[in-house]
Amino acid sequence: MFRHLFKKTARIPGHEVAHYQFLRKLHLIRLNFRYRGFLRTLLGLMGYLFKKLKLPFFQSYLFNPAAEPENGLDTSGIHEQRDLDIPEEKRSSATRYEASSSFEFRYVLERLRINYPDYHFIDYGSGKGAVLAVAARYPFASVTGIELSTSLHETACRNIEILERQGEVKAASLASFNEDAGRYPLPDAPHIFYLYNPFAADIMQKVLARIRSDVTMRKSPSYLLYNNPMQHDTIAASGLFEKIAEPMGGAWHLYRMRPEH
Predict the structure, then answer these.
(1) In terms of CB atoms within 10 Å, which of 20, 44, 221, 243 comes out highest?
(2) Of all helices (H) and strands (E), which one includes residue 23?
(3) For the segment 71-130, what is each residue's pLDDT rounded down to a tens digit?
(4) Which domains are seen in the chain, by residue range?
């Protein structure tokens, strides 16, 4: 039993990258103390124990909520690939929608220690805009989501309107586009690219080709934050990015754009 605590495994082989599950959980507890505070984290641990006992206590405090209840956004739920309203010829290259962990995202982003106004943020496969909502609270030059599903994109637009009404947006601009990821033009400026296993190798290759052709400025390095990096071999084969870290027990890969490209 204990040897599996220190072995890379995947809960859903073929859909999740193998990583150190136990190490990730330890990191997540630490991040909850950091971002939620002591009391809410303690209640979350109690909620986890009660869940194991099949008792309905403190469940609203469980770790890693898809969306914080108080922000009023619609970002939760899982939308399977077969149910997405996308062109049929592109369905095999798509993956299901599931919101990212805001705490994990904040931790990986903040470890870069960048000057946010120098950077444009792009979320490929942005879905309902869960990560857009978090990224918009940083003073990026722009925060942009690219989503192929029309219904998910429309939900993201409604969420953006809520954020703007609440005065939560610190980025200079915030938008979602109903667009093919590989066809969206990028400004020639430093970027933070974010992906949560949004598509297969064929689309990943098109996205990398777009980045290579559009982003030539080297004043500051561009970075790629890849959550559940199922296409890490495709990125390595491109030679465009170098891997610099594997945060959260290897459940994420963090890349920096090579200066020679």
Answers:
(1) 44
(2) helix 21-36
(3) 688 888 777 777 777 777 777 677 777 888 899 999 999 999 999 999 999 999 999 999
(4) 18-63 (no CATH), 103-257 (3.40.50.150)
**Residue range 115-159, pLDDT digits in tens:** 999 999 999 999 999 999 999 999 999 999 999 999 999 999 999
Closest CA to 125 of 226, 5, 211: 226
- Pairwise CA distance, residues 69 & 105, whole Å: 18
Q: Mutual orientation of helices 38-52 and 21-36 as an angle, nearest 10°?
A: 140
Left (φ > 0), alpha (ψ -120 to 50) or beta: where does 72 sit? Answer: left
Residues with Cβ within 8 Å of 84's Cβ and at least 6 positions away in sequence, in order, are 91, 94, 96, 97, 148, 149, 151, 152
Quote the CA–CA distance of 165 and 92 in Å, as a whole number: 37
| DSSP type of residue 256 | E
- Residue with token string 């993201």: 156
Is 208 exposed, middle or buried, given 0-12, 13-18 or 19+ CB atoms closer than 10 A?
A: buried
Q: How far apart are CA 148 and CA 171, in angstroms?
A: 23
Tokens of 128: 């309902």
CA 33 to chain centre: 21
